[in-house]
Amino acid sequence: MPPNSPPSAADAPLPPSPPSVPVLGHTHRLLRTNPLDWFTDLSEAYGDVVRVRIAGQSVIALSNPDDIERVLIERNQHYRKGGFQKLVTRSLLGNGLVLAEGDAWRAHRHDLEPAFHPDRLSAYARTIRSHTRSFLDGITTGDVIDLESSMKRLTLRIIADALFGVDVADDATELGSAFERILDHFERISRTYVYLPEWIPTPENLGYRRALTRLEAAVDEILDAHRDGSVDRRTVVTGLLESDSEWSRTELRDEIVTLLVAGHETTALALTFTGFLLGSHPDIASRAATAVRRLEEPNFAEAVADCDVLDRVLKESLRLYPPVYGIFREPATDDVLGGYRIPSGSILALNQWVVHRDDRFFLRPTEFRPGRWTPAFEQSLSLGAYFPFAAGPRRCLGDRFATLEAKLVLASLLRRFDIELVSEGSLDVVPSLTTQPRNPVRVRLTEA
Predict the structure, then answer these.
(1) What's the half-sphere exposure (Cβ side, CA atoms, 13 Å) at 395?
(2) What is the DSSP letter of 71?
(3) What whole-number distance in Å separates Cα of residue 147 and Cα of residue 271?
(4) Closest CA to 394 of 258, 200, 296, 264
(5) Could you tell me where the DSSP H helices lie in 19-101?
């Protein structure tokens, strides 16, 4: 081996690992703490590559941007969605874009890309503004709202109308309950890494299956609306049906569910976390409100998209509280990251939550400081240091839509109301399918 050359996978040592107990490994540690806090502590104590064993699974946490870029970008074809991740989420997401691999993933992404082309954003903006206006019209000054549940109802209506051409207003409460039950299911798995196949009739699994059945009914309603001519405009579904690919009912189901889940859940969480942060920092909220109240029609959506103050607020919120707290991959063969051997079959955890709060990359990382997002600072960051929408070929397809939606909802809210935080204490979050607030985020909206 030439001097100073990197070790081969065969010669490299395994990553460091904290003390463990027989059989249980590190599972007992995970059960006693918030997984997000634990992975942060592991990174601080053992470095950028740490190996733990949870419920029989070998989990390797990465927190160095160079390693993250290697996995997501440079050698992305070498890393696939982990077997455990697929096992756990297959009943919900099927073989939709989040879980698909290889030719199936490329074909599906190709057929879905036109729906998220920048040319479509102006039409989506009108839909976003219409539903946001209806939501705000229902608020009286002084009202106290649960921000998370309110934003989830709003973004569900937006995504159903914008992408599928249907109105779910009458079903929003029932669908919201189904999504909540599904997220509870994944929170338990995220805390324990213990998975019981859904066919086992435990109370937990029965409740989860009932929620899936309700979600399946919503998919049937969307497909029926397209078959019977109720949808009179072009949607994601019509685009898929008109593509060169032959989409089966199962494939359509998987993509519709994936878009419903990813398309409303993460944006609602981004708005919830941003609302909390603005309510906690009235001075920053005042500057953001002043900026958006100066924006005028008829080009409000374009002005919001270009609003520097709003852009910095959202970027900083996504840094501190990324709706997706981690990305998971599995190496197809042994590899070397950070000088350590990464065995095939390991679960790689690329934690936005940990990296986004690392003081090597962000000064005073636990503080809400939108002003840090200058052009020079952004250029200094590597793609592996800030990746709320992932990175590389599998970067979130709907990132432009989600960003526009979050900015338009937030700007519309700040034009009408001031945000006063009612919830006391810090914002505690727990991992589920996404990053979930442990307790309700309650704010009072008063007339601006």
Answers:
(1) 15
(2) I
(3) 8
(4) 258
(5) 27-31, 35-46, 65-69, 83-93
Distant-in-sequence, close-in-space partners of 387: CB < 8 Å, separation ≥ 6: 68, 72, 327, 350, 352, 355
**CA nearest neighbour of 260 among 302, 295, 212, 196:** 212
Residues 6+ apart with CB under 8 A from 131: 154, 157, 158, 161
H/E element, 432: none
What is d(CA 442, CA 73) in angstroms, rounded to the nearest whole number? 39
This prediction's pTM: 0.94
Residues 6+ apart with CB under 8 A from 419: 275, 278, 279, 285, 413, 443, 444, 445
Average pLDDT over residues 3-13: 71
Cis amide bond preceding 18, omega within 30:
no
The structure tokens listed for 65 are 């941007």
For 376, phi and psi rounded to 5 degrees?
-65, -40
**Contacts of residue 109, Cβ cutoff 8 Å, sequence gap at least 6:** 97, 397
Q: Tell me: the pLDDT tens digits for 113-134?
A: 999 999 999 999 999 999 999 9
The residue with tokens 């309510």 is: 279
| Cα-based distances in Å from 172 to 17, 124, 136, 156, 214 | 46, 20, 17, 7, 12
Distances from the Cα of 248 to the Cαs of 61, 196, 243, in angstroms?
37, 29, 12
In single-letter form, the type of residue at position 125 comes to: A
- Where helices occur in 193-235 by DSSP H, the ranges are 203-227
CA distances from 421 to 10, 116, 274, 441 (A): 55, 34, 12, 8
In order, the DSSP letters of 237-274 are HHHHHTSSS---HHHHHHHHHHHHHHHHHHHHHHHHHH
Give the per-residue SS3 of 78-93.
HEECCHHHHHHHHHHH
Q: Of the candidates 226, 254, 252, which has an alpha carbon nearest to the alpha carbon of residue 240? A: 252
Which residues, listed in sequence order, are joined to residue 347 by a DSSP beta bridge? Answer: 59
Region 417-441: mean pLDDT is: 92
Please name the residues in contact with 276: beta carbons below 8 A apart, sequence gap of 6 or more: 147, 421, 423, 427, 437, 441, 443
